[in-house]
Structures are given as C-alpha cells and as structure tokens.
Amino acid sequence: MLVVRTIAELRTAIQENKSKQEKSTVGFVPTMGYLHEGHASLMRRAAAENEVSVLSIFVNPIQFGPNEDLDRYPRDEQRDLALAENCGIDIVFLPSVEMMYPQETKTKVVVAQMTASLCGASRPGHFDGVTTVVSKLFHMVQPDRAYFGMKDAQQVAVLQQMVYDLNMSVELVPCPIVREEDGLALSSRNVYLSEDERAQALVLSQSLQLVQEWLAVEPVLTTAALADRIRTYINGSPLAEIEYVEVVAFPSLQPLAASFPMSERNTDVLIALAVRFGTTRLIDNRLLQAVQ
Ligand code: AMP
Q1: 81 in a domain, yes or no?
Q2: Residue 17 and residue 125 share a domain
C-alpha cells in the first residue's frame, strides 16, 4: 500500500498502478478518517471490485459550520493506515488543508433544493462543502466507481444528482449501513458519547426497527403518524434532543404529504433522523422500498 500526500504523487501512483494491467478500473472511497467497520465495508468492496483502489482521508474544513466539531474531529492516522492495508487498499491519499485549498476556493459546486432540507437545514453550507471537495477529489483520482455509505443517505442522493447534472463519468455505489451489534450505526463521532448517552442513543436504530412492526400491523399509517410515533419513541429517552424526523421520497428527497398513507408509496421512502445527545449529533435512517 502506497501512502501519498500530494496531488502529483497521487496522479503518478494511480497511473503506475493502472498500467500494471491492461484493463483496470479505479475504485475510490473518500473519508474523513478515524476509520471503523463502516468505512472498512466500503474499502473492502472497492478493493474487491476494482484493480486499483484508492482511499482518501481528509477532514474537509469547508463542510463544517463555525460552531461544529472541526477542531476536535477525532484522528488516528496510524490505525487508519493499518485498517486500510488490511482491507486491500492500494493507495491512500492524505492531503493537508494547504494541498487541497492553497487559497480560499472561489469555485463551489452547489446542488440546489435537495440540500435545503434534512441535514442541510441545520447545517447551512455543509453540502456545498461536500460536493465541492468530492468534485475536487473526483478530478484528482478520476475513479470509475466511488463508494459511499447509506448512513449518509442525503449525501448519496445529493452526490448522485451532482454526477448526473454535471455528466461526471463515475458510478456511485451506495453501500449498506454497518451497525454495532446492538443496532447503533457506526460513526466516527460515537466516541464523543458518554456512557449514558451511548446507552440512550439506541433509540435511533430502535425506532427505525419499530417502523417495520408498526407498518406490518397498520400498513396505511400516514407520513405524519409515522413521524409522530418515531418522535414519541425517541422522546422517551431523556437525553435525546430531536433535530428532525423526516419521511421523504428517495432519492428526490421531496417531502410527502402529511396525510399520505405509506401503503401507497410508489417510490422508495427515506425515514431520516438527526438527534442530539449533549453536544453530539447522531444521524440514522431507513429506506422503505416502493410498494408498487
Ligand atoms: P466520513 O468519514 O464520516 O465522511 O464517512 C466516509 C464514508 O463512510 C461515507 O460515505 C459514509 O457514508 C460512510 N460511512 C460512515 N459510517 C458508515 C456506516 N456506519 N456504515 C456504512 N458506511 C458508513
């Protein structure tokens, strides 16, 4: 496994790896590091499905708001490199902020509408930072496939729209959410949780699990009733502070009417949650397949 820190080294490394085989595809996994089994599932898949696999680790300042956790975002380069090697990654790109942004970027990639709701509502500018850095990374790596976790379902939808609108020649591969044994979705931010918060954080995955049971008994539950039940369940946990509970069409992220019965969904439906425990913000979601 090769570790590179400059864009020039990255380009050379990819060219050299590609030229080892006549026909080779490049699989790319962009991350912010502090890697866990969720990231590992993406890396293993990128390594298995492509001749050349590239991981990037970059805590991207422009996707953090002024009062967010940029300065305390967890980092462990040595552990990350060991896990990447174990997953079969060929090239790790570890750029500095100066390498990615030698000056304040005057160019931004902005996906409209879909970034105004859900996480975009409470994190203004966040998705502009994501689409801008992912575009930059796509230009540097020129991957055939890029792997993203459905843990960040809105991010997947927004990036798919960007790739479509800008005719980027990369296939986005959405990958399933990896969870702890008790259901908590893996996240680099889980380390911020106190013992009590960690225990109560289970209400996210539990409420999403209950949706299945509620719909089995009452398939005609409306969007509003479903969201209400989830809110009530989460509010049963005293440390939980709900930021949003949303039921929207996927991947358009269009809202569904409050009175819309779930049994009539003819698109996939995303149930997305953001809940704060103290200063830690957790997200989770579940995708319901279209009925018709
Ligand atoms: P991050 O380092 O948080 O920016 O995440 C990098 C990539 O890993 C993103 O595509 C995430 O959606 C994905 N990811 C993070 N957590 C998980 C998880 N629990 N399961 C699957 N993918 C994940």
Answers
A1: yes
A2: yes
